[in-house]
Amino acid sequence: MTTNMPWTLALALAAAGVYLILGPVPDELILDRSIPLATEPWRAFSAHLAHSDPSHLILDVAGLLLVGWLYEPALRGRMTALLLLGMPSILGAVMLLEPRVVAYCGLSGIVNLIVGAGLAAAWRAEPRDPLPILFALAVAAKILLESLTGQAVFSDTVWTPVHSAHAAGFLIGVMFETARTTKIGGIANPQGDTSMTSSSGPRHAKTGKPIDSAKLDRVVADARKASDERAAGYREQALKLYDWVCGRCARTFTRENLRELTVHHKDMNHDNNPPDGSNWELLCVYCHDNEHQKYEEHLAALAGGRVAKPGVAGKQTTHNPFEGLADLLKKDS
């Protein structure tokens, strides 16, 4: 547990320690509008660790542990940057958006910060999963309801809840994660995949060195592009050389369904493309698939020794169970 959510546990223990040692609303730690942050900058961080009463502390710590357990493993090393950026930004938003608030304390802004970043990370990892979007909408609805009613949904504390801190934390977390772009080997990586530089990323089986996954992806993409371009070139040539008829089922094609007519390489070598088209034949997609299926079955039979390889004579059968049958029939007659 400690390895998966170190920041969450550290913040929870720090908040509990502050309350046990200094009590509720310690003047030297909370955000106080009368004291400029430029003169006491630690308050941009310490205000999140102070709480107004036991209920405030318990609810904030419980919420922090829950969201940390859910999302800190997904955020991994980015938690440090998220907190360093998010904690003062939340207080800055409170000071800017709510001029009537004279003081602020509590972990609720950080809880929403982690929720926003965690949901964005989950969505980036699996864009087709609707759960992160639905959960984000639910959180946004909760914040909107609190802002309209002036009451916290899940808590009842001595101090009036500061809903702008919740909204700012959530939005900052979402923006931090969605705008994140890392560069690996000089290549922009919008998904932020650091597996190739991480100790837990894929490694070469023999050397043990990290595998540059981005380079591999780039090579594969280039190879596919070259293959597609090459295929488009010889297909155009084949369509000019041959009638638009499948060489197996004799199905005739027109421009409306020409996409279903493919070029088959007779020797199964897609790099063998003579200009005269002698290695090509036009087949419909079904007959083309059938040809490749037969070829794969032939290779499997060769591997299993069920057929003789080309140029290798198979074993000849010399025993004939009907040998001498003609002589026996002559004797009987």
Automatic annotation (TrEMBL):
It is found in: Membrane. Pfam families: HNH, Rhomboid. Its main location: membrane. Residues 187-212 are annotated as: Disordered. Keywords: Endonuclease, Hydrolase, Membrane, Nuclease, Transmembrane, Transmembrane helix. The chain crosses the membrane at residues 79-95, 101-121. Residues 191-201 have a biased composition (Polar residues). InterPro entries: HNH, HNH_nuc, Peptidase_S54_rhomboid_dom, Rhom-like_SP_proteobac, Rhomboid-like_sf. GO terms for cellular component: cytosol; membrane. Coiled coil: none annotated. The keyword ATP-binding does not apply. It is a multi-pass membrane protein. Gene3D superfamilies: Rhomboid-like. GO terms for molecular function: endonuclease activity; nucleic acid binding; serine-type endopeptidase activity; zinc ion binding. It comes from the Bacteria. SUPFAM superfamilies: Rhomboid-like. PANTHER family: HNH NUCLEASE YAJD-RELATED (PTHR41286). This is Putative HNH nuclease YajD. It comes from Thiocapsa marina 5811.
